[in-house]
Amino acid sequence: MGATAVISPPKLLRPIHPLVWVMISMLAVWGAGAFLTDQNSASFRNSGTGPPDVSERIVVRDLAKGAVGIFHAESGAAIVRYESGQGAFVRTIFRSLVRDRRVQGISAEPVFILYTLGAGDIIVEDPSTNSRIQLKAFGEPNAQHFRQMLDSAINLSSIPHDLTSEK
């Protein structure tokens, strides 16, 4: 009597392990997220908001005892000082920009640009990395800290700086 032959399906038709499907799904979600993020940043760059209404350059420096100082880039005058434990939102914004600088290997002193747009939004930008943060997105109270910095910097720009009188 004849033996029954067992034919196994070809390797291509065997079911794929479920973890492989999970990995493929995660890659698809990651790819879609990367694509959408790139589209959003492109729309921000090309949003047609026009040039900034007002802009000022500022410098951020670490000071003694954990303090952080914000200074007017041109005059060097102090705008605001946050002691250790103060200004958490401001510190977080500048830390993220400085982290981007480190990742890109930029070691120069962090000079940032604060500017407003027509819609009343305020932006902080690092011209070395082209990183921008729209501060209004974090709520009006948080954006207000940066508006006050910008107002102080504007006031410092309007003060005539006579180098001959300092000698």
Summarize it.
The chain is an alpha+beta fold and 167 residues long.
- Strand-residue proportion: 15-25%
Roughly how many Å is the radius of gyration? 26 Å
Assembly classification: single chain
What is the chain-wise order of helices and strands? Answer: HEEEHEEEH
Total number of helices: 3
Low-pLDDT parts are: 44-48, 161-167
Number of strands: 6
Verbal overview:
The protein is α+β, with helices and mostly antiparallel strands. It folds into two domains: 15-45; 54-158, no CATH class. 38% of the residues lie in helices and 20% in strands. The protein is built from three helices and six strands; from the N terminus they run αβββαβββα. It has helices at residues 18-45, 88-103, 140-158, and strands at 54-62, 68-72, 78-82, 111-116, 122-126, 131-134. It has a six-stranded antiparallel β-sheet, covered by helices on one side. The protein is elongated, with a radius of gyration of 26 Å.
